Amino acid sequence: MSDVQLLRPADNLVFEKTFGESAEVRTLLTAWWEKFSSMKPAFFNGAIVACRSCETSPGGGIRITWYETDYAHYMQRVASSPIVAPARAIFCSVVLRSSSGGFLVGQMSRKTSSPMQLQLPGGNVTRGQSGALSAASCADDAWREFKEEVGIALQPSQLKLWRVKVGGRFDDIGIIYLCDLQMSELEIRKAFDLHVRAERQAGATPEFEDLVFVNADFFVTTTACEWVDYLPAVAHQLEWLPAQGGG
Asked: Mapping DSSP to helix (H, G, I), strand (E, B) and coil, where does residue 167 land?
């Protein structure tokens, strides 16, 4: 495990596709998933992309090589005897700051793989329409995930590529976007409450159970909550960042 770092990406954030697992490993993963999912019927397998390597250049460029895999590979991180090293997921997240300066985090539903954990809105990235990854395709994933989890429709143009998260417990790669909507916390919460109500009326389980607005002090004074490993670093860097377009 390495310390979390939030890299400031230059304009040349590059994604390159590379090789995946062998056929033998894929067969073993399929067999493991059949047994695992029989005990976790709420989980489903599906395609994801994962990071093979993440390299930086002296000029601030970031090059991420990626490959196609599935959720079974990702969930090897909870296996008692992993078949293969867990996939380093590539995820996208949105830092939405309210008009009062706090930023939004969601508390995961009890029925998710990370129950009650605090994290930014977002999710695993997917291949773009062209079959490739880019900062723009990740932004598309980010605003869609934000709408599904929070209930507020953002536009890709409202998202500014802000940081790339590396390191942490599983060394997952996070493509983090910043958004200053100038909405109050009350306005955001009202939109979220309407969204949750509609989800439950439709028979669905909202991914977020609650919203919390936090700043750097939250991670100093709070000990009762669990959060993803990169949140304190996000809060620390945001503390010195002015609203509306800071770097």
From this structure: strand
∠237-148-226 over CA atoms, to 5°?
Answer: 45
All residues at 6 or more sequence positions from 145 whose CB lies less than 8 Å from its CB, including other chains: 92, 94, 121, 122, 123
The domain that holds 22 is classified in CATH as 3.90.79.10
In a domain, 98, yes or no: yes
> Residue 79 sits in which domain range?
2-239
Tokens of 24: 């033998």
The count of structural domains within the chain is: 1
Task: Name the region of 167 (left: φ>0; alpha: ψ -120 to 50; beta: rest).
Answer: left
pLDDT category at 60 given cuts 50, 70, 90 is confident
Band the pLDDT of 226: cuts 50, 70, 90. confident
Q: State how far the Cα of 105 lies from the Cα of 94, in Å rounded to an integer.
A: 9
Taking 3-state DSSP, the helix, strand and coil percentages for the chain, each rounded to the nearest 5, stand at 30, 30, 40
Q: DSSP string covering 109-131, please?
A: PTTSSSTT-EE-SEEE----TTS
DSSP string covering 10-24: -S-EEEEE-----HH
Amino acid at 104: L
In this prediction, residue 220 carries a pLDDT of 84
Domain assignment of residue 73, yes or no: yes
**Cross-strand pairs, 227:** 118
